[in-house]
Amino acid sequence: MCHVMKQELCIFGEIFIDMLGAIIGDIVGSRWEFNPTNDYNFPLFSEKNGFTDDIVCTVAVADALLNNSSDYGKYIHEWCRRYPHPKGGYGGRFVQWVRSDQPKPYNSLGNGSAMRVSPVGRWFNDSDKIAEQAKKTAECTHNHPEGIIGAQAVALAIHDCWQLAQTKKGEMISKEDILWKGLGQATKLYVDTPDLFNVDIEEHRNIFDETCPGTVPVALAIIQNSSDFEDAIRQAVSLGADADTIGAIVGSIAETLWGIPEWMKEKAMTYLPDEMREVVGNFYEQIELPSRITPNRIDTLNEGEIFVFGSNKQGYHGGGAARAALNKFGAEWGNGEGLQGRSYALPTMEGLESTKAAVDRFTAFAAGHKELRFYVTAVGCGIAGYVAEEIAPFFAEAAKLENVYLPASFWEVLKG
Fold first, then answer.
1. Angle of helix 243-258 relative to helix 145-168, nearest 10 degrees?
2. Angle at which helices 274-287 and 18-30 cross, to 10°
3. Phi, psi dihedrals of residue 41, rounded to the nearest 5°
4. How does strand 343-347 pair with strand 338-340?
5. Is 405 helix (H, G, I), strand (E, B) or coil?
6. What pLDDT does residue 416 have?
7. For residue 272, what are the CA distances in angstroms to 51, 381, 387?
8. DSSP string, 187-209
9. If DSSP codes are grouped into helix, strand and coil, which group holds residue 363?
10. DSSP code at position 164
11. What pLDDT is recorded for position 202?
């Protein structure tokens, strides 16, 4: 378990996790929730800032995930009772829910469901699973359809923007890429296709709208029109609207695209009590390994990057990832194992025992070639007919190598 002293190592590394983005957005916006500003150059931190209900609920969702629980309502209820007086207080109906010994959902479409969902967006790696769990985080209180959609949109945007950033590998990300690849699934919860998503941010200036439909699309539009994390936060807060909540939503997505300056991470954590810091630290620690996830789609490779695919001992690279390796990355027809061009073949058609031996040889090769980065695809889980639960454990040692990336489905198995 990551204790408070160790947290600084867990939190301030080069891991992109949406939860801290939400925390920073909330703290920065807290000063301006009831004292709105349109000054883009406002001071980010001061003695007037603090954590609000947004952070209490976000930490609660993360705590539920750390305890392998989908009873998010239980954890939100417990954490909010533990912190009955956050900066700005709780909303009227929500505070009644917190005080109740038998809390029930109250058909809310408020933006509270969207501001607390961020841990889900990076804990799970499958879009359907993310949407399902986002719904569960919302419906314990915000069971109105719009409240659920708001949570799902934010969680999906977090996941997809993170995938986009991984694919770009530090290259510039265009507004078009952000809209179609990063926000595509999220915007389609509001319009038929992303190109129809057209939110005029100025129309929402100085309008305090606490609903999901009045907040989430605006937050998505800010992300599309931002250039880095701080710019996104400044745009969100200086809108003069529900500053802390829009800040939290925007921050949670912006971190996955651009990361956060170290000084901002360190400053934000000073506003949190130790037990919240501990949850944040533990959450980051749990997700550290899956930060090396093979992108869902690989069309190009940079120098030193290797595409690892499943094939057969005969080297008949006829379908799926094997065909992609043959056509794009230098795989050799008739070569069933090992490095070839900018790819590495793993034979997976000869049984599990043989596959494990091939993975062990790959692991030794990767350990001896630290100058290369290996993107392992879901080997064995296509034509070979196996599932991640059967193949992923073979990569337990490879997972410890900093130059080996694995599919999200393998990490979920290895994470336990």
1. 30
2. 150
3. -95, 30
4. antiparallel
5. strand
6. 65
7. 7, 43, 42
8. HTTTSSSGGG----GGGGTT---
9. helix
10. H
11. 95
The confidence score (pLDDT) of residue 4 equals: 29
The predicted model scores a pTM of 0.71
What distance in Å separates the CA atoms of residue 210 and residue 241, rounded to the nearest whole number? 9
Determine the Cα–Cα distance for residues 306 and 303; give it in Å rounded to an integer: 9
d(CA 344, CA 337): 7
Q: In what order do the strands lie in the sheet with 338-340?
A: 338-340, 343-347, 305-311, 373-376, 404-405
366-393 residues labelled b (16+ CB within 10 A) or e (exposed): beebeebbbbbbbbbbbbbebebebbbe
Task: Extract the tokens encoding 324.
Answer: 């992609």
Q: Nearest Cα to 113, choosing from 141, 73, 83?
A: 141
The pLDDT assigned to 6 comes to: 29
For residue 405, the model assigns a pLDDT of 93
Which helix H or strand E contains 338, and what residues bound it?
strand 338-340
Q: 207: how many CB neighbours lie within 10 A of its CB?
A: 13
Question: Amino acid identity of 264?
Answer: M
56 and 86 Cβ atoms separated by less than 8 Å = yes
Q: What is the pLDDT at residue 404?
A: 94
pLDDT averaged per 10 residues, the chain (length 416): 30 52 97 96 97 97 91 97 95 95 97 96 88 97 98 97 86 94 98 96 96 98 97 98 97 95 94 95 72 83 95 93 95 97 96 97 97 96 94 94 91 81
CA distance 299 to 329: 9
Q: C-alpha 115: how far from its chain's center?
A: 14
How far apart, in whole angstroms, are the C-alpha atoms of residue 408 and residue 395? 13
**Per-residue pLDDT, 13:** 39
CB burial of 159-168 (b: ≥16 within 10 Å; e: otherwise) equals bbbbbbbbbe
Contact criterion met (CB below 8 Å) for 251 and 26: yes
pLDDT of residue 3: 27
Question: Looking at residue 397, what DSSP letter applies?
Answer: T
- Cα–Cα distance measured from residue 125 to residue 317, given in angstroms and rounded to the nearest whole number: 28
The pLDDT value recorded for residue 10 is: 34
The total of other beta-carbon atoms located within 10 Å of residue 106's CB is: 14
How far apart are the C-alpha atoms of 14 and 184, rounded to whole Å?
26
Q: Could you give the residue ranges of the DSSP H alpha helices within 111-194?
A: 112-115, 118-123, 127-139, 145-168, 175-177, 184-187
Any idea which residue has 């009045």 for tokens?
214
